[in-house]
Amino acid sequence: MDYIDGADLEFNENLETEILYGEGRAYGLELMLEKKEGKVKGWIAYTLAKSESLIPGMSDVDPGINYGNWYNNPQDKTHDLSIVAFYKHNKKWSFSSSFVFATGIPTNYPSSKYVYEGITIPNYSNRNEARLPNYHRLDFAATLRPLKNENRKWYTEWVFSIYNVYNRKNASSLYFREGDDGGTKAIQLSIFPIIPSVSYNFKF
Amino acid sequence: MNKSFIYIVSLVLFASCETVVDIDLEEGQKNLVSRSVLEFPLGDDYGVATVELSETSAFFSDMDNPVVSGAHVVINDIYVLLEQGENSGIYTLDSIPLTENGIYNLSIEASIDGQEGAWKGSDYFTEIPPVDTYISLESGQGPYMKDGYIVNVTFTDPGDEVNFYLLETSRPYTLDSIDGRSNYPNLRPYDDEFVNGNDVNFPIYKLYNIGDCVSIKFSSISEPTFLFYENLYQLLYQTIGIGAAPPFALRGNLVSENENFENAFGNFKVKNVFQRDLVIEE
Lengths: 204, 282
Known about the structure:
Number of helices of chain A: 0
Shape of chain B: globular
Strand content of chain A: over 45%
Number of helices of chain B: 2
Number of strands of chain A: 16
Strand order of the largest sheet of chain B: 12-11-14-16-2-3-6-5-4-7-8-15
Number of domains of chain A: 1
Shape of chain A: elongated
Oligomer: heterodimer
Structural class of chain A: mainly beta
Largest sheet of chain B: 12 strands, mixed
Number of strands of chain B: 16
Radius of gyration of chain A: 24 Å
Strand content of chain B: 35-45%
Distance between the termini of chain B: 63 Å
């Protein structure tokens, strides 16, 4: 299921007319290596995958999506890697860190432009032919479990964490607009920069 | 201390969400862009055809799109359009008669980037009802709104059929700078879904001053042409980001006749036109 070309989603009471149905297929390989013993525990997981859609038109004059050919669906990620590690330093302190990497999600970029009726119009490539930049991120957390927790039925802990340690500006979308100098610029929208946080857990 | 903390947190959370980035865009194959129109003035059985041909260009290019010269442009296999001047890329022919069935086929043969291409497109004539205009004074609402005059287009929509219209408006000009009326940069497609069979008052949402001149073209267009304009607006003004419909390649009705090229960009349309040059007066 996917939006038709030029789908109008705003204030539209007949959204079903903006959607086409078709086939999907997904295949790939998943690998995982896990260490469960010792002071350092963790795992490495890797997925190699392909996820595609085939959505023909409703009639002979309707070309469907991507002219009725297979195309990457929006969830397609060729590579997806995660590395997670836990380290218990002593009874009070433990540390964890994770790193994730994923191929950028499919999107459409303009491949050329033209002028029609005085309006400059971008010409976009086939559906999901391009990709956003690759996504990667490193997180870190330190957990303090005070010693007074021992011999209690409940315990508390402090977690000091940093999300996106190296402040990677991962793209959530990318669009184009005219800059002040009249030229066209590519604008990347990123959310969630480096975010330090402190949390207090109470468990019973 | 508390304020500083809030500022720092806000800075981290909300700063630099948008960044200008350099990306390499692969330029797609060059293709034909055609602005093709066959206009029948209201009440006239003969129309004027104008076809402007150009090429696509790289997305980040600062250059104007190159015109396509030396093309062979024909309507209904009979009426050959002639290029105006040398290397203008503009082909015209007047006195094309209204056919019985109102269908017109446009054929274009042109060379793009050293490759021969051929495209064909079709559209049909739809009759415009009698149209009139009047100018009314609009009082500015609120302290920052000025008074001004607006132009209204009026007509009675035929009740027994579905109709599609296109309103084109020039920028305001003065009688000393009359060149302004040759361009109609403001376009507004319109269908009769909510006004079928009614008397329609179609205001142009722009405030004019006494002495301003404005030219308007109000046309009856076919449903495919209306849908083309709807898609054009959808492409230019659609919401972006997560959950939004993806952008797309806007194609008109000019279908490629060989494998050298995909369908051309732009559209071929047949219009029945009410045209008027107005001077704003009290």
